[in-house]
Amino acid sequence: MTGYPAGAQVAQNDDSQMARVVPRAGAPVSFADLTEQLQPAVVNIATRQRVEVEQRGNSLAELFGMPQRSAPQGGAPQTREAQSLGSGFIISADGYVVTNNHVVSPSGRGTVEEITVKMPDGKEYEATLVGADAASDLAVLKIQSDKDFPFVEFGDSAQARTGDWVIAIGNPFGLGGTVTSGIVSAVMRNTGGGAYDRFIQTDASINRGNSGGPLFDMQGNVIGINNAILSPSGGSVGIGFAIPAETAKPIVEQLKSGKTIERGYLGVSITPVDDDLADSLGLRRNRGEFVQLVEPDAGADKAGIEAGDIVISIDGKEVTPDQTLSFLVANIKPGTTIAIELVREGKTRTVRALVGKRPTEDQIRERQMFRGDDEAEMPEQSEDASPVIDKLGLQVVAINAEIARQLRVPANTKGVAILKVNPNSDAATKGLRRRDIILTANYKPVASIADLETIVNEAVAEDREAVLLQIQREGGAPAYRAVRLR
What we know:
Layout (H helix, E strand, L loop, with lengths): L3 E2 L3 H4 L19 H7 L3 E12 L5 H6 L7 H4 L2 E13 L5 E4 L1 H4 L5 E9 L5 E3 L1 E6 L4 E5 L7 E2 L13 E6 L7 E12 L9 E4 L11 E3 L5 E8 L10 E5 H12 L7 E2 L2 E5 L2 H7 L7 E6 L4 H5 L6 E5 L2 E2 L6 H6 L6 E8 L2 E8 L1 E2 L3 H7 L26 E5 L2 H7 L8 E6 L4 H4 L7 E5 L2 E2 L3 H13 L4 E7 L6 E6 L2
Parallel strand pairs: 1-9
Antiparallel strand pairs: 2-3, 2-5, 3-4, 4-8, 5-6, 7-8, 10-11, 10-13, 11-12, 12-15, 13-14, 14-15, 16-23, 17-18, 18-19, 19-20, 19-21, 21-22, 24-25, 25-26, 26-27, 26-28, 28-29
């Protein structure tokens, strides 16, 4: 299938009188000609989702303190339909579309039932999700047609320089195809230290709905995928972020071919080396990362890396704020042995570590759920934590071998662990706290979140105002607590 690439790519293979549409050096006279060629390959993406929500009582009755009627089916969760809008762009004549994973992933406890791609001319196509990767926030869709699609191609984002002109095309606020222009404000911007937290920053206006749309250079090549904004108001304030093409392109190719994205993993929790830490250890500033925690039996642990070490290079590449340890290791193939240079007690040493396979983001969150007792460091509620238990004023998670290890209980322990207690709830009044394990509810064993949900819903259906919980606390004997429902 030959097709025709949109934008400046047309001129590369066209011997006709059409000239490459590139604005002159310096401030462009107009972006109109370039936009006209690029826009046909930029699409709107809409999803239809089925989201599970908890059915609550009558809000008016709650307001005036009146008795509430029991919800149907004992307050069982209900479902509602939801929609989301985003942007994307076609990268091949046969209809492969690139967007952000969060544009096409389900919201909360939901499922995506339909994905629709809408062309600039209004024609719509049902899309199939080919592959998605949460860590890099990328997804690839496929649409079908008897005719070739217009498409754009990835450029070399490594050549992007601060001050270069760029244009963004997307679907902000569901308005339809919208074009904004600006410059590259920064390259390799690190906003949080994640494995793929390196962005092109731009002041081209990016708003809600632009996610997944392309950021073009003046040659009409995609150098970034619009991903996020930094804004106190929720609207554009001139600080937008795009995933660099050099990061996105290899991941997109793997997703297209149906491959699983495998990343390297050492098993350490790290923090940047700030000025005070650098001064206290006599280190050069803006170099290295501090090891806070080493995961037992992971690659770092087996290599002899310890909490308190400062990792300064990975396989000869210096660890810096722009080139973090997470980024370097994630881009190493699992099973590779690497040299790690570190500083311990003022002395530099080198160890060799076998790089493991990075767990999923959910698995990583799970492993960190009960590390430390600081509530401020508790991760966001995972998919395993149930909003239905809000009636008890609790967030809970099912116990598996990993959670049991963190709680220092036998691996075969049955129950659910408390992640968080609402300070305004009766559970807090009764002394329940994080890390407590719920063994039974109303004398029935609780082996899963679903078990606890069922028992709570039964209590609601029977107009009971409390549930009797059997609680196991570390170092103590099991005890019963009757907790009022909210």
